Amino acid sequence: xxxxxxxxxxxxxxxxxxxxxxxxxxxxxxxxxxxxxxxxxxxxxxxxxxxxxxxxxxxxxxxxxxxxxxxxxxxxxxxxxxxxxxxxxxxxxxxxxxxxxxxxxxxxxxxxxxxxxxxxxxxxxxxxxxxxxxxxxxxxxxxxxxxxxxxxxxxxxxxxxxxxxxxxxxxxxxxxxxxxxxxxxxxxxxxxxxxxxxxxxxxxxxxxxxxxxxxxxxxxxxxxxxxxxxxxxxxxxxxxxxxxxxxxxxxxxxxxxxxxxxxxxxxxxxxxxxxxxxxxxxxxxxxxxxxxxxxxxxxxxxxxxxxxxxxxxxxxxxxxxxxxxxxxxxxxxxxxxxxxxxxxxxxxxxxxxxxxxxxxxxxxxxxxxxxxxxxxxxxxxxxxx
Length: 385
What we know:
Elements: H1 3-8, H2 13-33, H3 39-71, H4 78-106, H5 113-121, H6 130-133, H7 141-161, H8 168-189, H9 203-211, H10 213-231, H11 240-257, H12 269-284, H13 294-301, H14 303-322, H15 329-362
Helix pairs in contact: 2-3, 2-13, 2-14, 3-7, 3-10, 3-12, 4-7, 4-14, 4-15, 7-10, 8-10, 10-12, 11-12, 14-15
């Protein structure tokens, strides 16, 4: 099979399945911290919950860079690419934003539309203000980062495209080094008070490392570099199994370092990038992958919608059942499982009746892109155009 044909025949389904795993980690995080479990149980789960949530979001940021690079073709115009991505993001976001607004009003919450509108436009994370970052639908802070990624992608890809293939791993090392140093920069430069409840960092430090779009663009660039490594045949012989073990070890380090600034994204950025690339290579070579089953792929397909609705389901269901209520562990697990079912149903409806029609109507036709260079067995010493 030719290289171009190989890529056209390999849409990397395992990465879609992995999207569900990441979205589920975020769901579990919020289910553990939104008051369903007895406080004693919740406190024991807190470290696992928060680090799982950070891991899930970090995965999406790195994956975005990888997937956009993989699906990009050299002849595609910036406007076409921007239109595809904005149509993918905004319809679901707008629908859930207004749903969240209605739910907030129903719950008797005070809503300041002046502070809420930036979140509708996905520009609400550019300032270290919790009342803006967490307004209306809390999870949309990550979409504000995604918006910058998509707008900057043609320019970032152009820069990465100029890096010789033999220097791509050096570029990865440089990006990872910057990600690792940023927590120290946050501690040295940004105010450390007032501290966030339960965390050894201030709102400003947390904002800079977690939700400030230019900072998180480093994760996105890491994904771009990893895709270029695979495309140019520079991938190392690392299977998804060893890559997963590396990630598990990094996750343990992340839990050990949490709730400090070093326990956010720095420990897991590179291991996640390695796992994404290793799983992609497994798909390309037709090797076994645990993320390629039909149920996982289907759940991954609706994961964006699931991410948007899950916090609303968890939060306002708790309000409806009693804002101050907690449950014993079996009852809490039953409730959370049922709410995961509700989240999945709503995510399917949102995907089926909002996202897919919007993509058909406004995203525009896709052109066929060229394929990548051969994988490591037939490695090319130079980038292939």
